[in-house]
Structure formats: structure tokens, C-alpha cells
Fold:
Amino acid sequence: LREVDLNSAENPEQALIKQMDSNTRLLTISSIQYASGLKMDLAPLGHHCRASETLFCVDAIQSLGAVPFDAQAIDADFVMADGHKWMLGPEGLALFYCKQEIQPQLKLNQFGWHMVEHQGDYDRTDWSPATNAQRFECGSPNMMGIHALSASLSLLLEVGLAEVDALIQTKVDYLLEQLQLIPGLSIHSPLERKSRSGIINFTINNVNHALLHKQLVQSNIICAYRGGGIRFSPHFYTPDSALRSAIETLKLLIPST
Structure:
């Protein structure tokens, strides 16, 4: 296992590629880093993996539902994401994409009625895994979760992913502008549009960030304590009034120096 510090790399994609050699079997990466919000340029990684016959796996939990994502365009072999984050679905339901020609290479560690080739034929004694992606769904589907996720995806598609992305970036613009006016505050997320997402991570000098996070949540400011700092991550529907409230509440909670 070889790990790359993406936060200190001048070019994160090239830093990953430099760690690969003829023995590399798999490159796995988060499309957007959960703490810093760094958005990876996935296409060069996927194309390099294809040229070097290396499998490419993408954790897209911080992308799907927030930014346009094309598994084919980036040459991904595997993509997975839980539905409860930016896709606005319930917990307990995730998606898994596997390129068709790769499916037989994955070892199956479960076996159930739903993943067999002749589903519903209970009199057969020669059950075998399905030849399509159904081979990865071993048991009864989470139908309640599926209907709920279908409804949330319908909303996102109705608004349009390009519009969702644009609205998120408008809100990030506002937060970045306001946060940079606060003395002693450092932003640890990319500022350039091409590398940033809907996640903003920041720290403040001489502040206990675990305590600050607790105080923000108690003040009804929904945020997270990640990577040693505070993470704001507005979605497209977050009202501007909530953004203003987050900034004003943050200022009130910062100890005066």
C-alpha cells in the first residue's frame, strides 16, 4: 500500500501517478476529499490507469448529487457512494458501479436468492451467480430506501446537476468571501474553482475547534468537525439566510483577543 499526501502536493494527480509502477494493481481515490473539499481531476488518473492496465476505483460519496460526474469519461472501473449525503437519500442504501468486463474478476463473499442467474426459479439445484451486476445484490432489496432515494434523485434531476453545481458554488463564493474577513481564520480548502467543491474547511488561531463545533451545533448551525477544523458544506437548497446566520454565529462564538 502506497499513500500520497494530497494536501501538500503541488499537483495531487501527478503525485499519485508518480507513486505508480509496473506492479501497481489498483489506484483508489476519493473524487472529493471529505475534510479539505479538494476536488480531484479524475480523467488523467483514469486514462493513466487504462494505459498502464491498472484498475481505477473512485469513492464518489462527496460528488454524486453535488457536481456532474461521468464514470465513463474518467475511465473508472469501480465507483461507489452512499445515498445519504449529497444525493439526499436515507441511510442504509448505497450504489456500486462496476465496469461490465471487470465484474467476473471480483470474488463474491456472499450468496443469496437475489444474485443468481435464474432468479425466482427455486426448484433449480444448479444455482450460479448472475452474469450482470445483479450478482452483487445478494438479498432482498431495501425497497423503502430505494423509493426514497429515487424521489431525491428525481428532485436533483428536476433542478439539473449543472444548476445544482452552480448554486452550490455561489453559496461557497459567499462563505469564502465572509470567512476571509475574519481575523485569524485560515481556509484549508482550495480557492480555485477547478479544484474546489461544496466543502469549506477552516481553522481559527487559538481556538478549540472541537468545542467550537459543539457550540455551533448547539446554536443550530449544522456543520462538522473534520480534519482538525470546522467544515461548512452548503447544498443547493441552503437558504442565504442560513449562510448569513452561520457567519454571524461563528463571529459571536470566537473568543475576543
